[in-house]
Amino acid sequence: MHFELNGEQQQLADAIRRWIGRDYGFETRRAIVHSESGVSPEAWATMVELGLTALPVPEEHGGFGGDALSMFAVMQELGRGLVVEPYVATVLGAEFLRRGGKHGALLERVAAGEAKLACALGERQSRHDAFDVATRAEAVDGGYRLHGEKRVVLHGGEADALIVSARSAQCAVGLGSAASVDSVQDMDGVSLFVVPRDSAGLRVKGYRTLDGLRAASVVLDGVMVGPDAVIGRVEEGGAILDAALDYGAGLLCAEALGMMQALFDTTLEYLKTRQQFGAPIGKFQALQHRMADMAIHLEQARSMALLAALALARSGGGAGGDLATRRRVVSAAKYRVGLAARFIGQGAIQLHGGMGVTDELPASHYFKRLSMIELTLGDMDHHLERFIAQPGFREAA
């Protein structure tokens, strides 16, 4: 698929690349990953200055109202630079708030870089099913009381507020060790809440993930929130959750694309400089064939990631249009990008030889992050099943 960024998108992408090349090189990134916090306040301040936090926020809330194509350009560059700051988590959280239409003040803080967000959606039993929600929201005087536990919350420890999915007490009656899992696997009845980081009863335990980012386990032990904490309407958060996660999957596809391009370029340069038997190993035909296969995977992944970004942009990030088409395109992109990430990642490691798995080379870091992206917001098997389940597939087959 042939696609060119417009002038503003290209200027922003160039600015991000210059910043990363100047101030966020590989050694700087390694130092940030191994620091106590795992993130850099200086890097976050630069991202705010570049307008990245304001880009996806609607104009009425102090942002630029950038669509999925603008975010595609940004995420490619952040992926290329292996940036570990809590940007994806915050942007995805902002997408939930935008769809809910009630939290303009918080969105303004996000646009200004004054607030970071995280999405507490996954649970012990849910795996890739975001609608498998056992966390309970009990209606009480003055609001709701939340009980439950969330797992692998990306940048949960760095967030100022969490987006939490839960079911009402009525829908969750009888949820115990012997309860049927099917009783909580339903798109209907899901509510979404904004939970401030300093809420009483909220426990967050952060840790570093395989790819150098940060995640957290979150326990909600009777956390009290007011009625204004609800995103959208009570028990009608399923549609928001579905569309926002498709938006997030599109962001991850773009990030992975930037990483695969950088990994491909790094490997190609290595083949040109590594000498064996008195010649660069890039002259060996078998290795040229491997690079050609990697290039094909890269271009196919690029086409599908762009198709997903276009579909999300045309539907306002997934809010309108044909839901089946949006789901089908996003799942196809997530599957194809995951397939390419696995092939290119494994190929790059093999072509680098033993050095490919060392911490000193960027190749291993790209491969780790690509592997984590494949498992985030649904792995390849999950999205293949979702693609097949969309209306019209079996009839066409």
TrEMBL record:
One of its GO terms (molecular function) is acyl-CoA dehydrogenase activity. It comes from the Bacteria. The keyword Metal-binding does not apply. Residues 8-101 form the Acyl-CoA dehydrogenase/oxidase N-terminal domain. CDD domains: ACAD. The keyword Flavoprotein applies. Residues 118-217 form the Acyl-CoA oxidase/dehydrogenase middle domain. PANTHER family: ACYL-COA DEHYDROGENASE, ACYL-COA DEHYDROGENASE FADE28. Belongs to the acyl-CoA dehydrogenase family. SUPFAM superfamilies: Acyl-CoA dehydrogenase C-terminal domain-like (SSF47203), Acyl-CoA dehydrogenase NM domain-like (SSF56645). Keywords: FAD, Flavoprotein, Oxidoreductase. This is Acyl-CoA dehydrogenase. Its cofactor is FAD. Residues 237-383 form the Acyl-CoA dehydrogenase/oxidase C-terminal domain.
